[in-house]
Amino acid sequence: MRLKVSFLAMGALLAAGAAQAQQAVNHPDPQDEPIAAESPKPFPDGDPSAAAKGVSVPAPVVTEQSPVVQTIPGMPPVTDLHNIYSEASGPDKLSPVVAHDLERVYVPNLRGNSVSVIDPKTYKVVDTFPVGRSPQHVVPSWDLRTLWVTNNSEGHTDGSLTPIDPVTGKPGKAIPVDDPYNMYFTPDGQNAIVVAEAHRRLDFRDPHTMALKGSVEAPLCEGINHAAFSVDGRYAIFTCEFGRYLAKVDTVNRQLLGMLKLSKGGMPQDVLAAPDGHKFYVADMHADGVFIIDGDSFKETGFIPTGLGTHGLYPSRDARLLYVANRGSHMVHGPRHSKGSVSVVDVATDRVLKTWPIPGGGSPDMGNVSADGRTLWLSGRFDDVVYAIDTESGAMKQIPVGAEPHGLTVWPQPGRYSIGHTGIMR
Predict the structure, then answer these.
(1) What CATH topology corresponds to 87-411?
(2) Using CA atoms, how far apart are residues 52 and 191, in angstroms rounded to an integer?
(3) Cβ contact 273:228 at 8 Å
(4) Beta strands in 274-421 (DSSP E)
């Protein structure tokens, strides 16, 4: 049943969009100026909505008092202007779509070319299966029906995506895809965005077949990597892991809007939209902390020191806290038993409330929070383990997995739809 809401006048929307596209970042040298993108490529004909795909996505109730955000067409409505994660706040928000899915933690082992499967109730590995070369992340699809393993085949040309059926926990036949380091989904569900890291390129693909629709080139974005979307889904901010830059991309017209050079550091990693969907947090592994970015104006507004080798960012279930994984090293291939830790940031004040060191040292990397919010699951990148961290006390369990675990996902997750990565839900 479709919700009837009062939208802003189309003329105001177009004016706002034009103003946003014209926003420029003041850089000290010419190479930092926004890059002109190729002419936008039209989307294929057809209704991109969930209904057109045969997927039932429960719609939340929007009252007359609820603020209304003019989202891109086909994107589920934003029900809380102050919290874009409100529909992923706990087990009561689990979609009927995931009712029969197994409770599992899926861990891609980068050097093991495999996925380890953990039962979160027993903290035991219950399955391990081979996938393609160099699996980087396990990414829930927008419609919550497939978990995609991104096998980017580092240094080779045989990249692929391996689908996992969340009902059985078993993999299907891999689809050949060029350099899928990471993957996201536009909030309308119409596109998968494959992050082709080695090519400095974003490939917009059919979210089911992975057929290529078009690409956005980002020549200055060396090591294009992680992304986060604005409250209305109109733009995304991507990090450039090896270049000290951020890239802002128009997700509707498939255009590069501009580049922002960070004031220090030089190795931006994960990026996460704050609950308001306008402010963004960017982890930087060399700066040892989190940059604060105004996404609309695309300007750096602050910095939060956290710990050595800041890497992964995850919201608590109530979106009041930000869990920051500090990998313990500035190195891409760090040593075992580094000075890894997890910092807990108060989103209201942007201050670190506490920091949990990894007992005996470690390398917390990427992961997610359990459906009930009680456990933070993170891969131990250079220690071949997974950390299960109590979000109340910071107490940790370590579970041995395959070689160099990376972007694990915890499933199922509450929420109406996934925008990708390791399960960022809305």
Answers:
(1) Methylamine Dehydrogenase; Chain H (2.130.10)
(2) 14
(3) yes
(4) 279-284, 289-294, 299-305, 310-315, 321-326, 341-346, 351-357, 364-369, 375-380, 385-390, 396-400, 409-411
Give me the residue label for tokens 């979106």: 319
pLDDT at position 67 is: 58
pLDDT tens per residue across span 72-105: 999 999 999 999 999 999 999 999 999 999 999 9
Spatial neighbors of 290 by CB under 8 A, at least 6 apart, are: 281, 282, 283, 284, 303, 304, 306, 310, 313, 322, 324, 345
Q: Which two tokens stand for residue 171?
A: 């993999």
Joined tokens for residue 193: 């965005």
The ranges assigned to domains in the chain are: 87-411
Q: Please name which of 186, 174, 190, 147 lies closest in space to residue 53, comparing C-alpha atoms.
A: 190
On the CB side of 295, how many CA atoms lie within 13 Å of its CA? 28
The three-point CA angle 71-213-169 to 5° equals 80
Task: For the chain, list residues with pLDDT below 50.
Answer: 1-66
Q: What's the angle, vertex CA 182, arms to CA 363 and CA 414, rounded to 5?
A: 80
Asked whether 206 and 214 are in contact (CB, 8 A), the reply is no
Q: What is the DSSP string of 332-362?
A: TTPPTT-B-EEEEEETTTTEEEEEEEPTT-B
φ/ψ of residue 19, rounded to 5: -65, -40
d(CA 295, CA 297): 6
pTM of the model: 0.85
Token pair belonging to 348: 């209201």
Strands (E), 95-244: 104-109, 114-119, 124-130, 135-140, 147-151, 160-165, 170-171, 175-176, 182-185, 192-196, 201-205, 212-217, 224-229, 235-240
53 φ/ψ angles, rounded to the nearest 5 degrees: -90, 0
Q: Which two tokens stand for residue 110?
A: 């980068």
According to the model, what pLDDT value does residue 17 have? 39
**Confidence at residue 68, expressed as pLDDT on a 0 to 100 scale:** 84
